[in-house]
Amino acid sequence: MTAHTITVAGVAVDTRHWIGGERVASTETFTNASPIDSSVLGEISRGTATEAAAAVAAARDAFPAWAATARAERARILSAIADGVEKRIEELAIVETMDNGALLRSHRRGVMPRVAHNFRFFADWLLKLDHEDFETRGHTNHVSWDPAGPCVLITPWNAPLMLATWKVAPALAAGDTVVLKPAEWSPLTASLLADIAAEAGLPAGVLNVVQGYGSEIGDALTSHPDVRRISFTGSVPTARRIAASAAENLTPLSLELGGKSPLLVFADADLDLAVDLAVEQYDNAGQVCLAATRLLVEESIAEEFTRRFAEKATALVQGDPRDETTDIGPNIHPRQLEKIDGFVQRALAAGARAIMGGHPNQGQYYAPTLLTYVAQDSEIVQEEVFGPVLTLQTFTSEEEAVRLANDTRFGLAATVATGDRERAERVTAGLVAGTVWVNCFFVRDLQAPFGGSRQSGVGREGGTWSFDFYCDLKNTVTAPNGWNNHG
Ligand code: NAD
């Protein structure tokens, strides 16, 4: 145990950066608190341009050897990282819960197993990644997936390790080296990942982790000329700054951003299912990019839907995310809580009515809220709240439902509840969204393309799409003749 190690729920976590296979401390730190009870978890190294430069240099130096490492060996190390995650699921789960306030039971059963799966999936995919050769007038075209170089990966706090490894795993599989910068509100599990990767035999410098405020360390990472890819998950305003910073070197970007996704409920839907889908949108205290926060319900069933929704949603248990019975935990930070309440109070002042909630509860908890009488062009309908706040609007025709669904600047996801297959096909075809779920929600397969349309993002990740992004594709055209060494 060093002065730079903190103990979180019995788990030792190093608070320093991980650069070139070594722990590196900054002179300055920032305070990391738990959203559960605002208790201080520790002081974390507060990175600057100096640590950013050191981490990129480490990633650049480690790149040639990692890029030249055989696919099978890269896949083996990724699988060993997955094993390491699986061995430490309990520790990762509790540390993540203490750090970001999301439910311990979800971390244990869903999120951390998915973290391991991220590594295993991309290890397996790497081994089957291929393009068929093809011919042009007798010449052979051979497409190869060349590693691109050092990547900067910047991630948010709402699902820290899951979202980080969704980028780290394909980047490493592709033969790239990585500088990961987790969010300052949830820095801890990225540090544990560095330990796990080192134990799994990942060579020094292939994965680097730098901590700090995006406003202080971000620009030095995203404007660095040695960085060949930037993958970012977070908010639209930050994405704009990153894109501007990356523009100087024309560094390719992948952006996974916010949403204001709709749930369309038609009168022909299984109403119990539709209500369940709607209540599910409070998961993770509403801090889910994909959440269908706009409930669009056919007018003829709106009253019955609202009654059943309120009945179910008021039964949700809000409280300590470590308790098995808790359904809704705290929001991440006092600033986030203030932001959420600001949206709600402005909506109420503009004439919205709260069917449920509409106020903060004790501590960092916000009452699950449902607002009606909201105008389509109002802030509460157009802007992402990122808290347990849903709006309900009605429609009278399929065309109106699709028009309302598409009428924001986002296009991340959409969910449709209907009992009519043909309607589902028509509506789905008309929706602008990276993912559409029909009579289900949050079913995710890592081989599917994932990303957002419009201001919800740029590019797609998942399966081959991830390798498209993290690799430089090269087409080699070889003539049939001209050899002098055949014999
Ligand atoms: P944010 O944009 O404030 O921060 C995200 C990350 O960017 C953090 O690590 C932060 O430190 C860093 N950052 C901030 N300024 C930076 C700069 N100038 N340069 C480089 N990095 C900088 O977002 P957040 O509040 O942490 O996350 C919530 C947002 O993320 C929501 O909009 C949500 O919808 C979105 N999100 C999207 C997805 C998706 O897959 N589409 C998934 C989860 C969250």
What does this protein look like?
The chain is an alpha/beta fold and 487 residues long. It has 2 domains: 5-257 and 457-475, Aldehyde Dehydrogenase, Chain A, domain 1, CATH 3.40.605.10; 262-438, Aldehyde Dehydrogenase, Chain A, domain 2 (3-Layer(aba) Sandwich). 40% of the residues lie in helices and 22% in strands. The chain has 15 helices and 22 strands. It has helices at 49-68, 71-87, 89-100, 104-128, 160-174, 188-199, 214-222, 236-247, 271-279, 299-314, 334-349, 379-382, 398-406, 421-430, 463-470; strands spanning 5-8, 11-14, 17-19, 22-24, 29-33, 40-45, 134-136, 139-147, 150-154, 177-181, 207-209, 229-233, 253-256, 261-265, 292-298, 353-356, 369-372, 389-395, 413-417, 435-438, 457-458, 471-478. Strands 16-17-18-15-14-19-20 form a 7-stranded mixed β-sheet, with helices on both faces. A 6-stranded mixed β-sheet has the order 11-10-9-12-13-21, sandwiched between helices. Strands 7-8-22 form a 3-stranded antiparallel β-sheet. Helix 9 (271-279) links the parallel strand 14 (261-265) and strand 15. Helix 4 runs parallel beside helix 5 and helix 9 (271-279) packs across helix 10 (299-314). The radius of gyration is 24 Å and the shape is globular. The N and C termini lie far apart (65 Å). The model has no long low-confidence stretch (mean pLDDT 97). Bound molecules: nicotinamide-adenine-dinucleotide. Nicotinamide-adenine-dinucleotide (NAD) binds next to helix 7 and helix 8.
